[in-house]
Design goal:
The chain is mainly α and 221 residues long. The chain has a single domain, classed as Urease accessory protein UreF (Orthogonal Bundle), CATH 1.10.4190. Helix content is 61%, strand content 0%. The radius of gyration is 17 Å and the shape is globular. The relative contact order is 0.24.
Length: 221
């Protein structure tokens, strides 16, 4: 269910399995994407650890992360329609690169899960694919969202570490300050109806669009 309550079936290893699936070592290519942050850094809009923290917080609380967290939660519901959720997710993609990120990570995630579980996985955007795959895990949806959102925040922060004079310790300090926001967002997204989804981060959206014509690029988004 998408109300944060535990699902009734699973194994004692479900939490470890989720941590494995969300690990940076899991082969979905997340390291290759910055979600527009590369553009913001290249243009000077983001230049300090504090500004990086604000950027990531906005993406989480008001942008694509909030929207996808709701879709992930609904994908875990009994009787969910993953194809409908996939269509909705892709309809909200603000750029060709963002569409590529969602579909390529989802494809890679599905292939890895199929190889591990022996169960075929439908081709879905990443957040929907994760929700679909975690339906069998006896974990609260809120916990799944917390760990996924923390991983996403860390992914974007690592992009900043590779681009700015920003060390790993500074990045982890930023991530620590984001933990309360991640917890709050996970609780809200676990119970948000589909009719209430949306994103309001025009700066991040425009950065993703402009990234397509950036002369020199390290990241794919």
């Amino acid at each position: 269910m998408a109300d944060g309550s535990p699902k009734p079936a699973g194994t004692p290893h479900d939490r470890l399995r989720l941590v494995q699936w969300l690990s940076p070592a899991f082969p979905i290519g997340a390291f290759a994407y910055s979600q527009g942050l590369e553009t913001a850094i290249a243009t000077g809009a983001v230049a300090t650890p504090a500004q990086v923290g604000t950027w990531v917080a906005d993406v989480l609380l008001h942008g694509a992360a909030r929207l996808e967290a709701v879709l992930l939660a609904h994908a875990r519901q009994d009787g969910a329609d993953p194809e409908m959720l996939a269509d909705l997710a892709l309809a909200y993609a603000v750029s060709a690169e963002r569409h590529l990120e969602m579909t390529e990570q989802g494809r890679a995630f599905g292939q890895a899960i199929a190889a591990l579980t022996g169960e075929d996985q439908p081709p879905l955007p990443y957040a929907v694919a994760l929700g679909h795959a975690t339906r069998s895990l006896a974990l609260p949806t809120e916990e799944v969202l917390e760990l996924w959102l923390m991983g996403l925040a860390n992914q974007i922060l690592q992009a900043a570490v590779r681009f700015l004079p920003m060390g790993q310790t500074e990045a982890q300090a930023v991530l620590s300050r984001l933990l309360p926001a991640i917890t709050t967002l996970a609780a809200e997204a676990a119970t948000t109806p589909l009719g209430a989804i949306g994103a309001t981060t025009p700066g991040a959206d425009l950065a993703q669009m402009r990234h397509e014509t950036l002369p020199t690029r390290i990241f794919r988004t």
